[in-house]
Design a protein that fits this description.
The structure holds 2 protein chains of 2 kinds.
Chain A lengths: L1 H15 L13 H11 L6 H14 L6 H11 L5 H13 L9 H10 L6 H13 L6 H14 L3 H13 L7 H12 L2 E3 L3 E3 L4 H18 L7 H11 L8 H15 L5 E2 L1 E4 L4 E2 L5 E7 L10 E9 L5 E7 L1 E3 L2 E5 L8 E10 L4 E2 L2 E8 L3 E12 L7 E5 L9 E3 L3 E11 L10 E8 L5 E5 L1 E2 L5 E6 L12 E10 L7 E10 L35 H25 L10 H22 L3 H33 L1
Parallel strand pairs in A: 3-12, 5-13, 16-23
Antiparallel strand pairs in A: 1-2, 4-6, 6-10, 7-8, 7-11, 9-10, 11-13, 14-15, 14-17, 17-21, 18-19, 18-22, 20-21, 22-23
Helix pairs in contact in A: 2-3, 3-5, 3-13, 4-5, 5-7, 6-7, 7-9, 8-9, 9-10, 9-11, 11-13, 15-16
Chain B lengths: L1 H18 L2 H27 L4 H25 L21
Helix pairs in contact in B: 2-3
The chains are: A alpha+beta, B mainly alpha.
InterPro entries (chain B): DAD/Ost2 (IPR003038)
Pfam family, one (chain B): DAD
GO biological process, one term (chain B): protein N-linked glycosylation
Chain lengths: 631, 98
């Protein structure tokens, strides 16, 4: 089942090559590598930490200080009877040159005895590693048999990873086919997080160990590991996303993974990063890229090419298939020679030169910035009815106009200018073009936006009467400033253009202008409970209650007049029961109104009603019998 | 005009008191009581407002219900309708009783 799924994925991934796929978002920068080295280089106190430090540092390519001291430490801490101790010492001494651990027959026997089905996977791994590091012969068939048997019993990720690590230590001729398949199975057990990360739920150490072991085994048997390019990048993201490590073993596993990913025969993820911000301008016309592996080591053989460069705004193709030149370890391209207009450009960069490179198609956003100049700044005061011609004054940047302008409620103040690119002379429309009026006396500041018209000429008009609310009708001298800014401008402009005296009508002249307080506490909201409805005065309702009861009186009087009487009332039990039940029902009605809810009432009504009905039935039957008897 | 109305009313009342049997008058008195009660409730609602609306509804509708049931009773015991209700009211009122 795994194989067919993998085959399908392979076909799909083949179909998708050439499309920029996943790129690594996390890797070890130079400072990260330094931090890892310092984490591993802490002085060690016991054999296990010395193993992690030495092996980790060696894999990172940094030197272990003072080999002799370390060797002496290893020999002194070694316990020749303990398997773990032998493993740590053997591996550490193998990593430093010129350190030999003495081997006795007992040592060899202990190590060989550990290779069996009954030992745990960790024990088998340590024994085989120690045997191979110490140069002792290893019976590979026994080891493979033991491993295969143990894999069935210990199914967890760490155990299988250790099995793979053990297999990598065996000679190439050994039967490693079954164990190689475990790489695929383990790959299937990785958790995909958001399509960006791939890691074991056991954590970072397990993932990093798996990567280093998978590549070492694959290199050993010269077979490509069944990891797709996207999976490799996801693993890179997971392993290098953590920049500070909890334990020495975790740091060591990350170092091993970094070494494996930067130097193996099959997959080498490449990191493309811009040196500094990816910005190009006339003063800095070259785009500089750093091409490194995951440990920030520059790649020895690489050809970098811009496959295509599009302007984001206009989608026009600026560059195609332009190569970068290698200059002192940095790849450079003179982008300004293509004379791009200012703005953002989407680059697709391809790194070639090595068939092992993974994630070598990268998308990069490059900014081309330029400088802006304000030209043709014309200020004028125009009369509203335009009967009097406007007087236009031209002001040159960066000087300020000598004469202040006066505008009262009959006049408009107008300003027009153009913004041009100093290098190309093209008219620009930056994001921020503000006109700020600042009252020197009161500190008021009002900001307006100047808008360009169809010919890219910016115009600003201040209608004194219309805008007086924003000025709080404060007349006075205002300094007029022009603010121009944009992400692609290297020289944002803040230019005090002129002084403008504004006269407003109906000046309220408040003594001090309160700054608009937006962020003061608002008045507290008191919760209003639902107001009970207005009831009529008690007198009215009492009157009407009496009025409603009066027809009852009338009824009794009428009945008495008509001669209705209860002389025929027979005191038999059913009669009494009936009348009592009827009265009880009326009483229940009152109690329902005051105390009970519907369900309780229905319950009582069922009981009383049943009794009343039966009694009433009996009573009427008796009456009928009495009548027929009489007749 | 009013003269004729008054005379019609007085004639009606006279006929009513003489021709209707006592049984029916008892029921009619009950009907009048119910009617007045309902009408007064409605008047209160019009004058003072519909608060509490539930009480008004229950009072008024119960009056209407009682009125209808009493009217049905009256129709059934009316001797002029004897032909429609052959199986009911087979007995004649006794002497001195309804």
């Amino acid at each position: 089942m795994h194989r067919s799924w993998l085959l399908g994925c392979l076909v799909l991934s083949l179909a998708l090559t050439g499309v920029p796929g996943l790129i690594p978002t996390h890797y070890l920068s130079l400072s990260d590598v330094a931090r890892l080295q310092s984490a591993l280089g802490q002085p060690f106190t016991d054999l296990e930490s010395s193993y992690y430090s030495i092996v980790g540092l060696t894999k990172l390519g940094s030197a272990v200080p003072d080999h002799d001291e370390v060797c002496r430490f290893l020999k002194s801490q070694l316990d020749p009877m303990s398997l773990d101790s032998l493993f740590f010492a053997a591996e550490a001494s193998n990593a430093i040159s010129g350190c030999e651990i003495p081997v006795s027959n007992e040592t060899r026997d202990i190590l060989l005895a550990a290779v069996s089905e009954d030992s745990t996977m960790a024990q088998i791994h340590r024994a085989v590693s120690a045997l191979s590091s110490l140069g002792l012969p290893v019976a590979s068939q026994e080891v493979v048999a033991a491993l295969t048997a143990r894999i069935k019993k210990e199914d967890n990720v760490m155990a299988i990873t250790l099995a793979l690590a053990t297999a990598a230590k065996l000679p190439q001729q050994a039967e490693l086919g079954a164990i190689l398949e475990e790489i695929e199975d383990l790959t299937a057990r990785l958790d995909d997080l958001g399509g960006l990360y791939l890691q074991f739920e056991e954590g970072l150490e397990a993932t990093a160990m798996f990567v280093s072991v998978a590549y070492s085994l694959s290199d050993h048997v010269d077979m490509e590991p069944p990891l797709k390019e996207d999976q490799v990048i996801q693993l890179v993201n997971s392993i290098f996303s953590k920049k500070s490590w909890d334990s020495l073993s975790e740091a060591c596993s990350v170092a091993l993974a970094a070494a494996a990913l930067s130097n193996n025969r099959f997959h080498v993820p490449v990191i493309v990063s811009a040196q500094g911000p990816a910005t190009v301008s006339h003063s800095q016309p070259t785009l500089q890229l750093l091409i490194t592996d995951v440990m920030s080591q520059p790649l020895a053989t690489a050809n970098v090419l811009v496959e295509s460069a599009y302007a984001v705004a206009s989608k026009s193709l600026i560059l195609s298939q332009a190569p970068f030149t290698l200059n002192d370890g940095v790849f450079e391209l003179n982008f300004m020679s293509s004379q791009p207009a200012s703005g953002y450009y989407q680059f697709t960069v391809a790194v070639t030169g090595d068939s092992r490179l993974v994630a070598n198609h990268v998308e990069l956003k490059v900014k081309v910035s330029t400088e802006v100049a304000v030209t043709n700044m014309d200020l004028s005061v125009v009369d509203k009815d335009q009967s009097i011609g406007s007087k236009t004054t031209r002001v040159d940047y960066p000087s300020k106009s000598k004469t202040p302008f006066t505008a009262d409620s009959h006049q408009n103040f107008a300003m027009s200018f153009q913004l041009v690119d100093t290098n190309t002379g093209v008219e620009l429309t930056p994001h921020q073009t503000f006109v700020r009026l600042h009252n020197q006396k009161t500190g008021q500041e009002v900001v307006f936006v100047a808008e360009p018209d169809a010919k890219n000429v910016y115009k600003f008009e201040l209608d004194t009467a219309e805008r007086k609310s924003e000025f709080d009708s404060m007349s006075g001298t205002y300094t007029l400033c022009l603010i121009v800014g944009d992400a692609t401008l290297d020289n944002p402009i803040l230019w005090t253009v002129a002084d403008v005296v504004l006269k407003f009508l109906d000046e309220e002249a408040p003594a001090t202008i309160q700054p608009k307080t937006l962020y003061v506490p608002k008045p507290e909201i008191q919760h209003l409970f639902r107001e009970p409805e207005k009831k009529p005065p008690t007198v009215v309702s009492n009157t009407f209650t009496a009025l409603i009861l009066s027809p009852l009186l009338l009824l009794l009087i009428l009945w008495l007049k008509l001669g209705a009487n209860i002389s025929n009332f027979s005191f038999s039990p059913s009669t009494i029961l009936f009348h009592a039940g009827h009265a009880a029902m009326l009483g229940l009605m009152y109690v329902y109104w005051t105390h009970l809810d519907m369900f309780q009432t229905l319950k009582y009504l069922a009981i009383i009603g049943g009794v009343t009905f039966l009694a009433g039935n009996h009573m009427l039957a008796q009456k009928a019998v009495k009548r027929t008897e009489k007749n | 005009m009013s003269n004729s109305v008054l005379s019609v009313i007085s004639r009606f009342l006279e006929e009513y008191t003489t021709t209707t049997p006592n049984r029916l008058k008892v029921v009619d008195a009950y009907l009048l009581y119910i009617l007045l009660t309902g009408a007064l409730q409605f008047l209160y609602c019009l004058l003072v407002g519909t608060f509490p609306f539930n009480s008004f509804l229950s009072g008024f509708i119960s009056c209407v219900g009682c009125f209808i049931l009493a009217v049905c009773l009256r129709i059934q015991i009316n001797p002029q309708n004897k032909g429609d209700f052959l199986l009911l009211n087979c007995r004649e009122p006794e002497e001195g009783s309804l």
